[in-house]
Amino acid sequence: MSTIGHILQHKGNEVWTTTPDTVVYEALSLMADKNIGALLVLDQAGVVGIFSERDYARKVVLKGKSSRDIRVSDIMTDRVVYIKPGQTVEECLALMTDKKVRHLPVMAEDRLAGLISIGDVVKAVISDREFTISQLENYIIGVG
Fold first, then answer.
1. How far is Cα 32 from Cα 28, in angstroms, rounded to an integer?
2. Which of 54, 70, 116, 125 lies 20 to 30 Å from 77, alpha-carbon distance?
3. 19: which residues sit within 8 A by CB, 6+ positions away?
4. CATH code for the domain of 39
5. d(CA 143, CA 74)
6. Tens of pLDDT, residues 97-120
């Protein structure tokens, strides 16, 4: 069973961030340049929110606002849910499903260790299942 730490070992722990005062348009440009769906929002105190494509779609586009006129702090999700490196992929998937989030910061002690997306979790689940199937096939072939 994979852990979040295993995912970060393969994926890496690079995290793209922005600040609360950044104009939403600039944050979206960074997301497009990096081909990512969310940015962690940091200030001097640490993680204060997460800004995602979902935040933009629901709080800017659907409300007729302009991304050039508002700040990330105006639309970011400020109740951030975290996961720890030692937690399992299944625990992460359950948390994401329960909280209806697609990105989770990974915190090791009081340090930001990475960011996990739903795509990372699904890839890990598929990989674990493929490994189990392979092992079962090898066992069946070896027994026969």
1. 6
2. 125
3. 41, 42, 43, 72
4. 3.10.580.10
5. 62
6. 999 999 999 999 889 999 999 999
